[in-house]
């Protein structure tokens, strides 16, 4: 086969008479922005005008030249990796086809439709906003109210129509590569590699799907670069198999399988896929707590630690490999071993999975359905079946693929009759997620585990969000407004969503709000807070935890701490109960634009306090404390005075394959960090387990003034540490820690003269990523490494400054 790229410079004409040029892959917004015709849709409330713009049709066009060989060819196709969404395709004025699903790969017959020399292609795209409105008017369909009415009718990333963290910017365009393929010589349609593991031996089968008759050679190259020939369709043992492991458990050796087609001694096509040798399953066993739910990799059950991933930008052409790499490397930096691709976006690019393979991030892969009902007409079924096949074939060989999941939250909401659900939508639900997808997977990917929905208990509307089996979305903290101490009441088997919002830092807010708009209740700030009522929630939780912050910057800082403390509270609890619970995946990793949201990394890649906390609470070896104090006994000061238990139970979680021995140290200290009482204990923690220490009772302690510090050390090296209060930070009598710093090369030395909680190192001029930030410290010194950024004009704050 021979491929001719059509990516590059195209022209856009809008039906309201605007014309401009831009680059494909690209979109209406990327073209108009590139030519300076529209202002940044993320700035202030520009979103509104940008949305209105979509109320018209669009035509992308270009000329291309055809050489004599291509002009003579008998089999030629137009190959479109991504058309967004309702398109008519014209070649030299003749309509050659339609598309109606941005998640599919589209091909159109071009044979005899092109000629030598200049040709013209036009892709007309219907207004996405008008199209869904018309579809909705004809056929009412219920769906989440944050996105635009009628969105489930269109197979387009749902969140482009808005979400409770995203703007309504339903862009349109040619969002992935477009090319012409001469098929007079054969091509490799697909290369599928399966693996079998048996008693430590690994057997591979590579299967080439090809057009035409041509010789095919397949080679597998080991991670060390040694080539081994394979026969098409035949099983072969791989000597000395090097296993692929998720991050934190081992290496990620990758084998490259390459198929080459030859005709008359000439290479005519080649395709490569990188694989990792591993088994990947979900273990579900009935036990006294219900039924377990755990990833089992190469026979070992591991505790899933990570977050939910949403599209990285509303303008899809701005999502690049470099950007995704920075984001995913930040996940590894914070000890993630999993990432869940949420079902309201799109199936990520190949490079996303390549990076996950390299970094050891397992992928929980939702099919692209979320928070809506769908009407399973015969056409809709045909459309989604083709979508499943395209995407399953693209993704199935990646070692990072942890499981396929039918959808986001639809079994649960369908069960509750949400979105105007009825018997018919229930029937369609069952057909789509419990028949059609399993059927496609039986044929195209029988080796990957399928889970019907997130959350689910296994399907059939059998208590989808049950706490004792399957995965759970726990939203009573946040959406339900209960205090985050409630997390400790549950021993879920696997939490695939739980979250807490915060504001991004000031630098990020400066990109969309004028100084006079920098008040969280201003119109512009509310446009960048898509979960109605959320600011009130933040204020409510803030009132439970911190003093009222006197300025905007301290409010942002307090909101980030609140979020980080809430998620820490949950994760530490679930890790302490490893075995019952086997996964903590928080909502959400990233942002689609600059906004207040549940993310731990903002749109610009800036780490919020939560991401630094994640680095600590997802650390393979982690010490944590189940403290009991005023917050747990008597959360409101006006309750009848009673004796308050102040106690602590320390716990070490060991999420590694090695048993570990070390020493736990603890000190009860007053607010100047003076030690009042202390203890230490040598302990051994077996691999993949968590170990509780005896409860320590501090009955006589002044909980308004004293706190507990603790650490776990091995060979005099601190592996994990922390502090806890026995009252809410707002009521603790902090002394001024008089924070100061010195810098030597890439090290920042922080000095505190008293106990300092959540020390925040920031620079107004530079984006810093540090080895640690938002940490607690006893009076004394602590050294922090600068991982990236320049330490210019550093500012230091701690909870003492929230007042
Ligand atoms: C969930 C998700 C998203 C949503 C988030 C925050 O349950 O699946 O649909 O954005 O909560 O509300």
Q: Secondary structure elements and their pairing?
A:
Layout: E1 2-5, E2 8-14, E3 19-24, E4 26-27, H1 28-34, H2 47-53, E5 58-66, H3 68-72, E6 76-80, E7 83-84, E8 87-91, E9 94-99, E10 106-109, E11 117-125, H4 128-138, E12 173-174, E13 178-182, E14 188-198, E15 201-210, E16 215-221, E17 227-230, E18 235-238, E19 255-263, E20 266-275, E21 280-283, E22 286-287, E23 290-291, E24 294-297, E25 300-302, E26 304-309, H5 321-333, E27 338-341, H6 350-359, E28 362-366, H7 378-395, E29 401-405, H8 410-415, H9 423-444, E30 450-451, E31 472-473, E32 495-497, H10 506-510, H11 523-527, H12 534-545, H13 552-576, E33 583-586, H14 609-617, E34 621-628, H15 630-633, E35 647-654, E36 660-670, E37 675-685, E38 689-692, E39 696-697, E40 706-714, E41 717-725, E42 740-744, E43 747-752, E44 756-762, E45 769-770, E46 775-777, E47 780-788, E48 795-797
Parallel strand pairs: 26-27, 26-33, 27-28, 28-29, 29-30, 31-32
Antiparallel strand pairs: 1-13, 2-3, 2-5, 4-12, 5-11, 6-10, 6-13, 7-12, 8-9, 8-11, 14-15, 15-18, 16-17, 16-19, 19-20, 21-24, 22-23, 24-25, 34-35, 35-38, 35-39, 36-37, 36-40, 40-41, 42-43, 43-47, 44-46, 44-48, 45-47
Helix pairs in contact: 5-6, 7-9, 13-14
The chain binds beta-D-mannopyranose (BMA).
């Amino acid at each position: 086969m021979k491929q001719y790229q059509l990516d590059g410079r195209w022209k856009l004409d809008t039906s309201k008479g605007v014309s401009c040029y831009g680059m494909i892959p690209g979109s209406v917004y990327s073209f108009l922005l590139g030519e300076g015709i529209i202002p940044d849709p993320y700035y202030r409330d520009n979103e509104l005008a940008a949305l209105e713009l979509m109320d018209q049709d669009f035509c992308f066009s270009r000329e291309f030249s055809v050489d004599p060989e291509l002009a003579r060819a008998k089999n030629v196709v137009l190959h479109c990796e991504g058309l967004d969404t309702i398109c008519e395709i014209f070649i030299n004025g003749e309509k050659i086809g339609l598309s109606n699903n941005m998640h599919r790969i589209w091909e159109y017959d071009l044979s005899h439709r092109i000629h030598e020399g200049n040709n013209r292609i036009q892709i007309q795209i219907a207004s996405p906003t008008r199209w869904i409105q018309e579809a909705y008017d004809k056929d009412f369909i219920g769906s989440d109210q944050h996105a635009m009415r009628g969105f489930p009718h269109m197979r387009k990333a749902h969140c482009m129509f808005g979400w409770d963290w995203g703007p309504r910017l339903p862009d349109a365009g040619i969002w992935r590569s477009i090319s012409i393929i001469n098929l007079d010589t054969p091509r490799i349609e697909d290369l599928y590699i399966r693996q079998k593991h048996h008693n430590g031996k690994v057997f591979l089968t590579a299967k080439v799907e090809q057009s035409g008759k041509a010789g095919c050679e397949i080679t597998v190259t080991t991670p060390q670069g040694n080539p081994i020939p394979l026969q098409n369709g035949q099983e072969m043992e791989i000597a000395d198999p090097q296993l692929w492991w998720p991050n934190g458990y081992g290496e990620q050796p990758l084998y490259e399988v390459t198929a080459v087609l030859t005709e008359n001694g000439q290479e005519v096509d080649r395709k490569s896929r990188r694989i990792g040798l591993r088994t990947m399953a979900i273990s579900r066993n009935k036990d006294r707590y219900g039924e377990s739910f755990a990833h089992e990799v190469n026979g070992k059950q591991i505790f899933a630690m990570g977050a939910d991933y949403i599209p990285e930008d509303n303008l899809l052409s701005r999502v690049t490999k470099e950007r995704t790499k920075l984001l995913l490397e930040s996940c590894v930096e914070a000890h993630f071993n999993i990432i869940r691709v949420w079902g309201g976006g799109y199936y990520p690019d190949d490079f996303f999975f390549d990076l996950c393979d390299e970094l050891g991030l397992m992928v929980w892969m939702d099919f692209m359905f979320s928070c809506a009902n769908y009407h399973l007409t015969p056409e809709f079924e045909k459309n989604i079946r083709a979508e499943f096949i395209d995407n399953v074939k693209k993704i199935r060989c990646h070692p990072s693929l942890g499981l396929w999941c039918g959808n986001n939250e639809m079994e649960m909401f369908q069960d509750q009759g949400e979105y105007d659900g009825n018997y018919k939508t229930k029937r369609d639900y069952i057909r789509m997620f419990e028949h059609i997808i399993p059927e496609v997977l039986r044929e195209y990917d029988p080796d990957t585990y399928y889970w019907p929905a997130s959350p689910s208990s296994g399907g059939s509307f059998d208590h989808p969000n049950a706490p004792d089996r399957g995965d759970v979305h726990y939203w009573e903290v946040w959406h339900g407004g209960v205090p985050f101490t409630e997390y400790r009441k549950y021993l879920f088997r696997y939490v695939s969503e739980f979250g807490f919002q915060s504001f991004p830092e000031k630098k990020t807010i400066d990109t969309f709000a004028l100084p006079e708009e920098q008040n969280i209740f201003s119109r512009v700030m509310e446009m960048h807070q898509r979960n109605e009522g959320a600011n009130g929630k933040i204020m409510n939780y803030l009132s439970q935890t911190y003093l009222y912050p006197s300025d905007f910057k301290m409010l942002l800082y307090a909101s980030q701490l609140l979020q980080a403390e809430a998620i820490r509270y949950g994760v530490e609890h679930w890790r302490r109960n490893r075995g019952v619970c086997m996964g903590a995946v928080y909502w959400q990793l990233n942002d689609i634009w600059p906004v207040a949201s549940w993310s731990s990394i903002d749109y610009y890649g800036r780490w919020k306090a939560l991401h630094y906390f994640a680095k600590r609470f997802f650390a393979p070896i982690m010490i944590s404390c189940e403290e009991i104090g005023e917050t747990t006994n008597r959360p409101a000061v006006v309750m009848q005075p009673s004796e308050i238990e102040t106690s602590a139970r320390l716990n070490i979680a060991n999420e590694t394959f090695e048993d570990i021995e070390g020493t736990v140290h603890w000190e009860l200290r007053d607010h100047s960090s003076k030690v009042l009482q202390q203890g230490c204990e040598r302990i051994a923690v077996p691999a993949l387990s968590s170990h509780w220490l005896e409860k320590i009772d501090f009955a006589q302690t002044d909980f308004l003034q004293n706190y507990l510090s603790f650490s776990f050390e091995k060979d005099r090296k601190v592996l994990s540490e922390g502090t806890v209060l026995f009252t809410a930070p707002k009521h603790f009598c902090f002394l001024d820690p008089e924070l100061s710093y010195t810098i030597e090369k890439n090290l920042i030395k922080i000095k505190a003269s008293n106990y300092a909680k959540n020390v925040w190192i920031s620079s107004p001029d530079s984006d810093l990523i540090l080895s640690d930030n938002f940490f607690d410290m006893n009076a004394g010194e602590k050294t922090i490494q600068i991982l990236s950024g320049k330490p210019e004009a550093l500012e230091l704050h701690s909870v003492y400054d929230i007042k």
